[in-house]
């Protein structure tokens, strides 16, 4: 049965207005954002979106499923759990998230002190990622982020690759040979990527390998 929406359609022929019909309800786009790097269980989403209750999360997921943005699937054995992921069409919303991030970074009221989850912080890096200057050495870094909001949660792993054609940061559990490994809390890493702090000033950042590679990552993805 379709979820009942708490608002009416704009009934406007503009595609932007239709987009707001689809993702404009409170929490809807935040749910989408949390799925941009891969599927998650209901409990994962509830943990990663502080402040959302289970009933509201259920309704938002139902709305997003109804519109074809989110899909529910079962992981094969031995996991055998239900996860929520974005459809191919839904994954196109990362471009919207990127545009919003670039636009809102200029806001004088951007809450720099507010915490961010690991995926959210990496999405900000992806939104502002830049290619290396021509002739520069390519580099790769394993990034392991511990959520400052939840000290009992296992670090989330990412692989960052910087090249002259572009820089990328992807979520992964398999990392091969890299130039450096970074272990950091989200609060410390955010201070560097968004707050402009230096790597040396943050006690909660530990680097193994070439620090120059990590600085290249910062330079390629900071706001």
Automatic annotation (TrEMBL):
<dbReference type="InterPro" id="IPR036390">
    <property type="entry name" value="WH_DNA-bd_sf"/>
</dbReference>
<dbReference type="Pfam" id="PF01638">
    <property type="entry name" value="HxlR"/>
</dbReference>
<dbReference type="GO" id="GO:0003677">
    <property type="term" value="F:DNA binding"/>
</dbReference>
<keyword id="KW-0805">Transcription regulation</keyword>
<protein>
    <submittedName>
        <fullName>Transcriptional regulator</fullName>
    </submittedName>
</protein>
<keyword id="KW-0804">Transcription</keyword>
<dbReference type="InterPro" id="IPR002577">
    <property type="entry name" value="HTH_HxlR"/>
</dbReference>
<keyword id="KW-0238">DNA-binding</keyword>
<dbReference type="InterPro" id="IPR036388">
    <property type="entry name" value="WH-like_DNA-bd_sf"/>
</dbReference>
């Amino acid at each position: 049965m379709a979820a009942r929406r708490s608002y009416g359609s704009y009934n406007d022929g503009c595609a932007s207005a239709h987009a707001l019909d689809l993702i404009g309800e409170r929490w809807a786009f935040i749910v989408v954002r949390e799925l941009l790097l891969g599927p998650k269980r209901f409990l994962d989403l509830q943990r990663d979106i502080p402040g959302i209750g289970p009933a509201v999360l259920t309704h938002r997921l139902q709305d997003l499923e109804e519109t074809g943005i989110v899909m529910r699937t079962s992981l094969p054995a031995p996991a055998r759990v239900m996860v929520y992921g974005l459809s191919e069409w839904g994954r196109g919303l990362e471009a919207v998230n990127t545009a919003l991030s670039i636009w809102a970074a200029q806001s004088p009221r951007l809450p720099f002190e507010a915490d961010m989850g690991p995926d959210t912080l990496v999405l900000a890096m992806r939104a502002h990622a830049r290619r290396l200057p021509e002739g520069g050495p390519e580099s790769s870094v394993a990034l392991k982020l511990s959520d400052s909001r939840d000290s009992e949660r296992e670090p989330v792993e990412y692989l960052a690759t910087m090249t002259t054609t572009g820089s990328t940061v992807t979520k992964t559990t398999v990392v091969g040979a890299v130039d450096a490994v970074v272990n950091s809390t989200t609060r410390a890493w955010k201070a560097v990527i968004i707050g402009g702090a230096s790597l040396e000033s943050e006690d909660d950042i530990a680097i193994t390998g070439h620090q120059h590679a990590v600085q290249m990552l910062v330079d390629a993805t900071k706001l």
